[in-house]
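Hi Q.,

Before the meeting this afternoon, I wanted you to have the heme C prediction in hand. No need to reply - just skim if you have a minute. The sequence and ligand are here:
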Amino acid sequence: MKAKTAAWGIVVIIVVGAGVVLSGILDPSYETSEIDQADSQTPAQLITRGKYLAMAADCTACHTSKDGAPFAGGVPLATPFGTIYGSNITPDKKNGIGSWTSADFYKVLHDGIAPGHPVYPAMPYTSYRSISRADSDAIFAYLRSIQPVPVANKANDVPFPFNIRALLRGWNFLFLRNSLPDASSGSSDEWVRGKYLANGLGHCTECHTPRGALGQLTLGKTLQGGDLGDIHAVGITPGQLAARGWTTADLQHFLAFGIAPQGSAYGEMHDVVHYSTQHLTQADNKALVRYLTGDTPLSPAALPAQAGRPPEQRKSLPPAGLCIWPCAPAAIPPTARASPMSPSHCTAIPRYATNSRTTSSGSSWRGFPPSSSPAIKAARRCRASTQS
Ligand code: HEC
Ligand code: HEC
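Predicted structure with the ligand bound:
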């Protein structure tokens, strides 16, 4: 077993090494022109648009730490290859992007190459690659307009051989694709815009698509569901959504408010809704959903009878971690009964429960009951019954 792993390691290093040489030759370069004003926008309009696009792309998620200044970095991202920290992307000259050109910036979004070093694909440039140059320039203009924060970047905690950044060029050569596969079929303008929002800015695939041994997206299984440590980001292909009873209107509501008859966002998706999708314009919200369902939505299956609450109670984003589960509502303490969870969330609770991620003080993670509690045990049983 050990020998096999070592052999794999050598193969990986040779393959990735070859990639380094090749991608060194193939590395694209961009005009170092100043910010693209082709849309004849005033600088103020450009900044406003850039702020909106940065929200649609959820740059905050990985670049603003819990108690830190906006975009000053320091957010830890646990990956199978070690912990990687989101960088300071304020206009600070020493620690941020204060001395970058708009072309440098585009190159990070498009190729994952910062001035002087490639970045880890924990920065989702595999998705951001489809962001247009004009939109990249608008985001850049916005970031250049915010307060510079002189916070030093945290050193990543990545063991050998993954700490050799040059290998990332090989990774790019092997796995970085010009476009991601379509998750649905369509050709309407709304669908095309939705695809740009989902595959590019919203980088939905980074969590909802399974990954291979080197952290690469399994593109043949686009949006079919991915694992994020304790939580499973459920499959959101048109077929999977329809099977779980999602209508177009429910999806629009979910992305705008974090809650729907199917349940509420409570894990990573809560943050996605909170920082990103709730801020989308109505047109972009509709376009994103159009891409999820395709131009011809499938007819959704009926919802389990227990799911859902009256629509008038579904208007605001529930706090993370507060949720009940339609499979076993009686098993969940009333205090936790703030919002329903979807049957798909059945996969998340037992994962959490089996990982027993409780703190030493006995309190539970994100408000879930302790893994030994009757609620979690009931949830686990119920999940088994709904999945067979
Ligand atoms: C899923 C997490 C994630 C999201 C979302 C994300 N980033 Fe990053 N970003 C990272 C990580 C992690 C790094 C550092 C990678 C490394 O150390 O190689 C990084 C690095 C960068 C860098 C390079 C900084 C440097 O000095 O090397 C820039 C610029 C950047 N991100 C901009 C953005 C922008 C703009 C957005 C939104 C459009 C964004 N990021 C969204 C995780 C993310
Ligand atoms: C940072 C990871 C992450 C990103 C990015 C992400 N999601 Fe999610 N998503 C999750 C997780 C985890 C869940 C399930 C549990 C939860 O957090 O609510 C989920 C749940 C969902 C659900 C509910 C499905 C169900 O039946 O329960 C929908 C719909 C959804 N995501 C759509 C999207 C869309 C559209 C995007 C892109 C705009 C997106 N997600 C981006 C992690 C993510």
